[in-house]
Each structure stands twice: as C-alpha cells, then as structure tokens.
Design goal:
Shape: elongated
Largest sheet: none
CATH topology of the domain at 51-172: Vanadium-containing Chloroperoxidase, domain 1
Helix content: over 70%
CATH class of the domain at 51-172: Mainly Alpha
CATH superfamily of the domain at 51-172: Phosphatidic acid phosphatase type 2/haloperoxidase
Order of helices and strands: HHHHHHH
Radius of gyration: 18 Å
Oligomer: single chain
CATH architecture of the domain at 51-172: Up-down Bundle
Number of helices: 7
Strand content: under 5%
C-alpha cells in the first residue's frame, strides 16, 4: 500500500513547481478555499427561515466538525505517527505545515461539513463534496499530504457527520413537527 500511496503522491506532486500560476492555484485551493466554504455554510444557514432550523444546522455542522477534526483526527495522530511527504522525501512544500499527516485534518473538517450540507440540500452538498475533494488533491499537490491521508480524513469526516446527524435527527424531527403544527 505504501508504494501505491507514494506513486499516487508523485503522480499529483510532479506538476508542482512547473508553472507559477498552477502553484498559486494549488496554494489557494489548499489553504484559502476553506474560508469560502465556511462562509458559504454560514450564508446557507442564514437563508433558512426558521431560527430553530438555522440553529440545528449550525449545531449539526459544528459538532460534526469538532468531532472529526478536533477529536478523532487528533486521537489518531496521538497514537499513529505518520510523517508528511516533505519529511520523508526531503523537499520544501509550497505551504508551511507541521505535525503528523494522517489523517488529513482539512479533509476531515470539510468532508464532515459537506455531509451536513448534503443532508439539508443535496445539490449544494454535492458541490461541497467536489470542493472538499479538490482541496484534498490540492493538499497533495502542495506537498503536505499523502493520498491516504486525504482518504482517511474524508472517512473520519463522513463518519463523524453521519453519527452526529443520526444522534441529533430526533431534535430535527421535533422542529419539523412543531413547524407543521403551527401552520
């Protein structure tokens, strides 16, 4: 598996440092796309009419992200120490990064967010999945993650969002029932 991981890494990373425009795009997608996605999530919430639904979606997303990125990712990194590609292959990445690489915190965060958005708006959720995947590829392109780091982070994010949403869904059902009874 390690050979496949390194092969896939090289397949993507080989395009790095060949074109400054492509490098800038890789840096933007790996670092700054995150801000746009969080802002989009907040705007998505803002346009919901019912304040209880707004609060629920925000809580669903926040708890899923905290579980994925803040707890599970850090627990895995505490017990499993996977060096980053630039440490193993001895090169300077396009962006600064430190700590262990598996699983990707960015992938965990944004796949969890994508899953929560998907639960409430399938079309927008699919776009979030696409952007989360693009961000993951960009993190490989800039040299800070292995492909398996991204897949591991995505799995952590999806599982976290699923569990949180499943636990909170009875509250959503109550909100929907109350809204229906008020009409």
């Amino acid at each position: 598996m390690t050979n496949l991981n390194q092969y896939l890494f090289q397949l993507i990373y080989q395009f790095s440092r060949r074109n400054s425009l492509l490098d800038y795009l890789g840096v933007f997608l790996s670092q700054y796309l995150a801000y746009i996605l969080v802002l989009g999530f907040l705007i998505f919430i803002f346009y919901k009419r019912d304040w209880r639904l707004r609060f629920f979606i925000f809580a669903d997303g926040a708890i899923a992200v905290i579980l994925a990125r803040g707890i599970i990712t850090e627990l895995i990194r505490f017990f499993y120490h996977s060096p980053r590609p630039f440490d193993v292959l001895n090169f300077a990445p396009l962006i600064g990064e430190s700590g262990y690489s598996f699983p990707s915190g960015h992938a965990a965060w944004f796949f969890a967010l994508a899953m929560i958005v998907y639960y409430f708006n399938r079309r927008l959720g699919i776009w979030y999945f696409v952007f989360a995947a693009i961000m993951g590829i960009a993190r490989i392109f800039v040299g800070v993650h292995w492909p398996l780091d991204i897949l591991g982070g995505a799995a952590v994010g999806l599982l976290s969002a699923f569990l949180v949403h499943k636990l909170l869904k009875p509250s959503l059902d109550k909100i929907s029932l109350q809204e229906h009874n008020l009409q």
